[in-house]
DUF1611 domain-containing protein (Myxococcus landrumensis), 338 residues
Amino acid sequence: MEIQKPYLLFLGDVPDQLAAKTAHGIVDWRPEWCVGQLRLPGCKADCGLTDLDIAQAKAKGAKTLIVGVANAGGVLPEHWVGKLVEALDAGMDVATGLHRRLSSFPAIAEAARRNGRALHDVRIPDMEFATGKGTRRQGLRLLTVGTDCSVGKKYTALALEKEMRARGLQADFRATGQTGIFISGRGVAIDAVVSDFVAGAAEWLSPENAVDHWDLVEGQGSLFHPSFAGVTLGLLHGAQPDAFIVCHEPTRTKMRGVQHALPSIQAVIERTVLEGQLTNPGIQCTGLAINTEHLAEQEALGLMERLGRDHGLPCVDPIRTGVGPLVDELVRRFPVRG
């Protein structure tokens, strides 16, 4: 799948910033690929890009309209279809990470056909996976896990890749969601894989490699989330991580989209070790990544210092402080092996 650049990011009329996390992720890691954003009336998200209509974006060179949202159920609202058709008629391709195929909308399929444009459904796997086997394989793997959804698992894995490569380490980000695929150009939307094959897809995504090579696997959901724990568990078993980082948003009291209370960091560490030992008996937590976006500077720094001390682990905010201490810990615990 080759998605043509640059992008126009379509935000629709989503109700908050988190609902546009796909667009935000692209802007954070590939800003040079984005010409602007398109928002409908009532949209409560803003990526900080220039607001453009279809004609203006085309004039600026946009080649693909990216539906930059992640909503419950991965649906494309009917009242968005017209804008996607308009983009196709203007000569753009359209890409989405939602669950329903773009070609299943007759108006979109017809517009793509008459204009000779491509439709990209990055959340729908274009290959078949085997079931997970749980066989140990060479190489090192890290998985980001969370106390909840949308707490920074993807951002943390990407920040680790950037820092590790800057130090000359072998490291590759492995995308398991639509935003990561848009950023990296490769991956599998793990929540769209049939449940029996989730672990196998994760094994395919992080195959045997050099002894000192790190696969940094983007986590999904949470082992404690009643909606998504199954996906999280399959990914954990298939990735067979040697190390994991717990990601946490400290201002939440309930998990996103449900009424369940947020689990403690310690509970996440204990359950991840318990479940992860099935395929990697040596699994260990090597750090904490705290999303302190909603905290003032001193409050955030104080919280990270306390959490690090309480858990005996390096504790960072990948945006405020960087992930240097997390990489230091990985280098210490997993020295290069010849």
In short: The first strand starts at residue 7 and ends at 12. DSSP finds eleven helices and eleven strands in the chain. The domain at 7-121 is CATH 3.40.50.720 (Rossmann fold). The radius of gyration is 20 Å.
